[in-house]
Amino acid sequence: xxxxxxxxxxxxxxxxxxxxxxxxxxxxxxxxxxxxxxxxxxxxxxxxxxxxxxxxxxxxxxxxxxxxxxxxxxxxxxxxxxxxxxxxxxxxxxxxxxxxxxxxxxxxxxxxxxxxxxxxxxxxxxxxxxxxxxxxxxxxx
Length: 141
Hints:
The chain is mainly alpha-helical.
């Protein structure tokens, strides 16, 4: 199930979620809303802003190498992501990375722990804060 603008916000508001970080692209990394900061989505059913904070998803491991998506080699991943990461830094935004548990297996040489470590090392070199979703909620309030 994907994000459905007329249904998903209602479900998340009904369940009283504080935040969501599923609004992104499976096919490509980047900014689904042309925006790298958390925001309150519009709830079409109520005509008001949602109660939950949307923390945009910027990159997912499967996007980078999956046969239906970008098919990047391990060496292409960080260079491909760097312009997006620089744009997030330029605007003081939030970078949300989704890396599935199964991709931390050392046998995965395409989107495995080495590629994740490269991204984290780059971010660490930029002196960013590593926080969770609840921390972002508290920063926004």
